[in-house]
Request: fold
Amino acid sequence: MSPASIVPLPLRRRAVFVSDVHLGSKHCHAAEFADFLQGLRCDKLYLVGDIVDLWWMSQRRAAWGSAQYRVVEALHALARAGTELIYVPGNHDRSIRRFCGLTLPRMQVRRRAIHLTADGRRLLVTHGDDYDAVTQFGGMQEKFGDWLYDRILTGNKLTNQVRRRFGKRYWSLADFLKRQSGAAERYISRFVQAGLDDARKRGLDGIVCGHIHRASLFERDGCVYANDGDWVESLTALVEEADGALRLLTHTGETVSMLPPRAPRALPRDEELPHAA
Reply:
């Protein structure tokens, strides 16, 4: 996709959350991610894990070229423009966790973070692999799932190469196939519930995460669940607007779903105000 076909994002966002870019793996849509970053203006950019796929690069041949260098340059440009970068490593860039707690030049590295929205919501920011113990199948079933997923992502890339030749927009074959699988949907449901439970246990208003490659944004029983998606399947990001509204965007800047800002709490009536001592 050429930069000319990208819808610009002219507004300055208060915060942007991206995860699961998997730079260095053959499944990464690095060109689309670079285009997205180059059109971005924000105060804070949260890199919510698996940004660089160190696991893939250590096991297989790294896929690294001009598009990947464009991503790195775009991140540098954002930092130079005053964007605060917060890196929350995931399971595929786990070794970066040794730097958690450090403030590096133009970037903080955190095991997890709490983001305060403009409307006062406190959101846990974490990659999500901490919930694997309560969501994964384990054993041979999990290994087979990893093998099958790799093949599906390969098919996803080939499908969209053909679609581009016919001028059609991006479509996730991988997400379509996962939605047909009862086992995959049950896994995602357990993951969502584990994240919401964790946020509530910490006394927070919601969670922002990645990890499962399923972009989603909703509120359940007063608790926000925001999964910013990924850049191998959904090609999405989560943004916070100036008023605290949360919006899930595609790589071309289209809104997938939105949560409005939290309504301001009503002031008590005069007779309910505490009397001055």
Summary: The two ends are 67 Å apart (CA to CA). Residues 1-5, 137-145, 270-277 have pLDDT under 50 and may be disordered. The first strand starts at residue 13 and ends at 18.
